[in-house]
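Sample A.
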Amino acid sequence: MPQQVRLTLWIVAAIFVFGGLLFWVIYPRIIHHFSKENYKRQDYDVIARLVRDNDYYLINSFAFETGSSPLVIDHLIGGDKYLYVVIDYYLPGTLEVDPRLKYAYIHTKGNEKLEIVNPFEMVRAASERLSTLSGIPSDYFVGIALYNDDAVILGNAHPSADLYLCPSRKIGKIVRSYENRAVEPFVSAQLWQAIQDLHSIKVQTSKEKN
């Protein structure tokens, strides 16, 4: 084989190897960045599909004050039998969580340790607050901390009957398990009124903030 041909083949092979290594290094970072920037949109798409396919009710971005800090419910789903309080989380690594503690810790892929308010505390507080404001018994509320599918959880993801840490792809499974329970569904008019009352609370709290 002529020297020039061998040199050309070597250059082409080197380009392929270098390109493959570059793709292997950069691609996960691109996916990570895309997920971080778009996780709320992805969660909304999953929930909107769940609501649409089952003819449920949905209120998004419900914020109110609890003591000295605001509490934001990203999605409130009105099912036939339960109300689902959903807060979105993006976890860039592993979440170390104990439902009995006030704080949880994110161990990032860059070996950082970040402290956050325990997601269980957040969804519990949100459910209790909505129950108090609306007069709807707390037994009807299910709290779900929804996180990105590629995160890892260290700890109990379901510490009680009405609290969950849930990857985005599995929220439909949790909702279906509750809606299939042998309990009486809401009377349609009552559910509609409850959702209207909660929406009115959302509007009122938004006016008060402004």
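Sample B.
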Amino acid sequence: MKHFPIKIISLLMLLLFGGCQIIGLRTNFSRDLTKEQQRKVVWDFPEDDFLPTQNDGRLYAINGKQMLKTIQQYPKVIVYQWSPHCSSEYCSTLSGLQTLCDQNGITLFVLADYFHDAFSQAQSLSNPLFIANERYYKTKLCPKLEKRFYIDLLGEETYNETKDISWYRYCYFEDGKFVKYRRDPYAEFDKK
């Protein structure tokens, strides 16, 4: 019994310092990226410009309106909400998903959930890696940031109609219009 307070304190410390996921905050930009990586994050991309479509090794902090404007240039697009350490069977490797999209004539845009390890796999992408701009949306709380980004991308009505399945992670567009969320793009392409 005398170790009980130590266990409680240890558990509280783990929750406080060990997991941004638990409290719903995006991980820390300055702590999770090296100085060189920090210089590769573009925060102030002009709102009226199309997003870059060649992977230049940088990470672009964007809003949903910028993503939508760029998507409208392509006949078929998947926006993949990527978590670098996701272990779900429905989370894809970036290289595998890029190959699948290339084989099916689909443009792939990847939106990273966190800064932590965001640069680790991005070199396999044709397009640059993107992240929701917490400065633009004025929040680091993941649920609020995600909601605001997707309302800008899909429109509020569509967002509200689909928010229960948005965890599917794959947003499919045709001719600049949202079609549906996909849970597993591999299974859906195999049905063709």
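B remarks: The two ends are 62 Å apart (CA to CA). Confidence is low (pLDDT under 50) at residues 7-23.
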